[in-house]
């Protein structure tokens, strides 16, 4: 359902992705700047999923081996800090 979110979680934030956190952030930033379609699609999906109370960030982050949370609000805050604010926050 949220294919761009899943792609970013598995390709840029996953703990098994080689490189440092800084390198992953830079690669994502570069891809967002180079592809307007990717930028717009990811932004739209993030807006939708951040407003979707049925979506589990705890499960999404855990299944992608990114971070482990016991509570949805903490997991959502982590995603907002890692994805929304740096790339789309106004």
Please characterize this protein's 3D structure:
- α2 crosses α3 (36-50).
- The termini are far apart.
- The longest helix has 17 residues, at 72-88.
- This protein has helices at 3-13, 21-34, 36-50, 57-63, 72-88.
- It has 90 residues and is mostly helical.
Structural topology:
Layout lengths: L2 H11 L7 H14 L1 H15 L6 H7 L8 H17 L2
The value of Rg in angstroms is 12 Å
Number of helix segments? Answer: 5
Mean pLDDT across the residues is 92
Taken in chain order, the helices and strands follow as HHHHH
Low-pLDDT residue spans: none
- Category from helices, strands and their pairing: mainly alpha
Overall geometric form: globular
The biggest beta sheet, please?
none
The helicity comes to over 70%
Q: How much β-strand is present in the residues?
A: under 5%
Give the tally of β-strands.
Answer: 0
Euclidean distance between termini CA atoms: 26 Å
Could you give a short description of this structure?
With 90 residues, the protein is an all-alpha fold.
What are the defining features of this structure?
5 helices, 90 residues, 0% strand
């Amino acid at each position: 359902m949220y294919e761009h979110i899943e792609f970013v979680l598995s390709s840029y934030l996953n703990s098994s992705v080689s490189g440092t956190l800084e390198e992953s952030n830079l690669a994502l930033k570069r891809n967002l700047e180079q592809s307007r379609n990717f930028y717009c699609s990811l932004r739209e999906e993030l807006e939708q999923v951040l407003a979707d109370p049925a979506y589990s960030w705890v499960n999404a982050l855990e299944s992608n081996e990114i971070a482990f949370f016991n509570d949805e609000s903490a997991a959502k805050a982590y995603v907002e800090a890692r994805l929304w604010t740096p790339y789309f926050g106004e």
